Amino acid sequence: MSFDADVIIVGGGLSGLSAGITAVMEGLNVILLERGEYSGAKNVSGGRMYIHALKMLIPDALERAPLERPITKETFEIFCDKNRKITFSFEEKDKKNSFSVLRSKFDRWLASEAENLGLLISYSTLVLNAYREGEGITLETNRGTLKAPLIIDASGVTSIVFRLLGLRKFTPDKWMLGVKEIIKTDVNLPENEGEVRTIVGAIKGVKGGGFVYTNKDTLSVGMAVTFDSLPKSEFPAKDLVEAFRERIGIEGEILEYSAHAIPYYGFKNLPPLYDKNLIAVGDSAGFLINDGFTIRGMDLAIGSGMIAGLAAKKIVESRNFSNTEVYYEMLKDSFVLKHLELAYNRFELINSPLTLSTYPEILCNVLSDMFTVEENRNTLINDFIYRLKEKGIPLSQTVRDLWKAIK
Amino acid sequence: MVPLLKRLGLNTYNVDKKPHIEVNTDICINCKDKPCTVSCPAGTYEALPDGRIAVHYERCLECGGALVICPFGAIKFRFPEGGISYRYG
Fold first, then answer.
1. B7–chain A nearest CA distance, Å
2. For residue range A144-173, what is the model confidence (pLDDT) as tens digits?
């Protein structure tokens, strides 16, 4: 049976392009299929990239990539109710570890880098069906049929090739809905500074939170909440981002309204990462980290894409296209799976209703008592224990949770 | 609050001739909660007085949520050939 390429990559976002760049540099014959008219046309992301993986892919990316602003200030806001919130910030000037990005611009740039290196990208190409045939996988697209012995599924959380082959079962608790607006604004900050605000509890009922990312002359304002919590939200999904924006007091001209599903599996619940002739990367593999302080998907997409490109070389050389476990073995040795595993304790903790609503409320009550002077006054620890008791939470559990948070 | 249709109007759409979303509205009649009507960020699914659902497929933001929001499998969703293009993303 003749094949159209050594490897076909489905999806021209960060993970697909990283896999494509790596595989082409390894000398493989690669075709990448992108659904949009250009890379980034279909991409939506909150908009912050930790750039360590990008620098591995393109060493001088920092000088050339269309990044928005370095994130030099982190602010967390936790709403207990309408009148009370806890806010804390951390600032580190000259920090260049993560940047705000706008994906339409960024992915288009990365695609042009990939094309300059020799990657063949077929745009406006939608995969309609996939099935096993002979020794490989056949993809039916709106532009004709393509066959390859190895497919890299980089199609995002909906993992089209895995799905069409019956290898994915989705549930609303393992997916988040991301909704976002781009707001035109005069950012009152020097060029080398940017802020990320993470906001929890502004909208009641939902499991998740909101964000504000500072771009060059716009703000990315949005929310990410689990699909199963949406029916319990005080606002329907179509009004979520507007209600959130009003609640946190951001005004300005809306330039874009977008939405996207986000994988929310956690290390121990990841979907199958590989099958015969098939590898999943980025969102398609469910790679997202939320450890309470950092929310990461883009560096994991680039990292897993690069590993997939290297694994593809090994698989093609061995001529054993069933042995895609090679990819998994390489992933295990990489930061991708190591960091996902490290983050799992806190990921679990963040998902607990205690963390999302009860603990903030207790903390607000304790802080409110602390800042209220009356004749009767308690010690801080007694007040804390009293407030815990009020909610029926044993101190031992709180200590265990605190341990989980720092472990 | 800026109305949904005004926000959707900011986007560029290249709508397919054939809907990329199909709903089995006979199932919807028996669905009390209709989670699709509150879970879609584009207001694609609208509850009708007769208990069925109207589908505004041309509004779709292609988040993929349709693949998980109906608990009864009444929604058939595939990605469109044209559809939305984002300027900022």
1. 6
2. 999 999 999 999 999 999 999 999 999 999
Residue A172 and residue B69: Cβ atoms within 8 Å? yes
* Residue limits of CATH 3.50.50.60 in chain A: 7-66+102-168+271-343
Go through the domains of chain B in sequence order and give each one's CATH number: 4-85 (3.30.70.20)
Give the dihedral sign, CA A185/A188/A194/A200.
Answer: negative
A176/chain B closest Cα distance in angstroms: 9
CA distance A175 to chain B (A): 8
Question: Of A142, A242, A261, which is closest to B1 when you measure between CB atoms?
Answer: A242
**Which of A36, A171, A259 is closest, CB to CB, to B61?**
A259
Residue A359 confidence (pLDDT): 87
**Phi, psi angles (nearest 5°) of residue A111:** -65, -40
For residue A403, pLDDT over 90 is answered with: no
Average pLDDT in the A95-112 region? 97
Query: CATH for A7-66+102-168+271-343, among 3.40.50.140, 3.50.50.60, 3.90.1150.10, 3.30.70.60?
Result: 3.50.50.60
Whether A231 and B35 lie within 8 Å, measured CB to CB:
yes
N-term to C-term CA, chain B: 22
Say which residues have a Cβ less than 8 Å from residue A204's Cβ, sequence separation at least 6: A233, A234
Rounded to two decimals, the ipTM of the complex is: 0.97
The average pLDDT across A281-305 equals 96
Residues 6+ apart with CB under 8 A from B56: B42, B43, B44, B45, B46
Question: What CATH number belongs to A173-263?
Answer: 3.30.9.90
Per-residue pLDDT, A401: 87
pTM to 2 decimal places = 0.96
pLDDT tens across A19-58, in order?
Answer: 999 999 999 999 999 999 999 999 999 999 999 999 999 9
User: Do the chains contact at B7 and A260, CB–CB below 8 Å?
Assistant: no
- Look at A36 and B85 and tell me if their CB atoms are within 8 Å: yes
Handedness of CA A328, A329, A330, A336 (dihedral sign): positive
pLDDT band (50, 70, 90) for residue A1: low
Residue pairs between chains A and B whose CB atoms are closer than 8 Å: 129
